[in-house]
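Continuing the series of single-chain predictions for the mutant panel. This is the parent chain; the variants come on the following pages.
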Amino acid sequence: MSENIVRYEGSEAVPSRHGNYAAAETSWLDILAGPALAILLACFILWLIMKALRWLDKKDEFLEEGFNDVLGVKNGCVSGIPVKYEWIPVSTSRNHSHPAELDFEFTVKNPGGLRLAINKEGWLGPLSRPVGFYPPEAAIQPAWLEPLGFKLRWAPAEALPAFSDKLKSLEPLIDGNLEEIRLEGNILHINFLSEVTYELPEAKRLIDAGVKAALLFRS
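Parent structure:
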């Protein structure tokens, strides 16, 4: 009788059919758990990114509001003149450095379609500026432009004497950091580049000078 009894112990034990089903079910759960956790982690990271972007947007809004208050810009206008401006601090990366930039665009009146530019030429001379983009140099250059090497470009030439007062209003804007003053259409564009980030008082001084000039160009 004892010869017909077979005992299974330890690793030699054979699991039942129900045991096989439970093991298979557990393996499927293990397989599904990996992607589910990955999706949850991705959603959490995305939520953090969106929250950070909202914070940065709000920070930019606060910065812009602070600039608007100091510069006197209200509803996109200063002293009743529509204006757009950009204030860009100095930025430096491993292989590149970009200077600080201060850029103003005033909406003025230009019924005659006059074209004006005040800038410097690079070492390539006339080739350093886009061909046809600027008007030709004025035959008579204002004395207040010469010390810093700026040139006045104007078209049509015969209209220049009638605009002497308007040109004179640009003199306070002429400094070593001026990159360009340009009148095209009804936009008076003034651009400065500096190795040092512009502080608000300096930006305020420059925009005030730009406003005085823009008022004359609107008359």
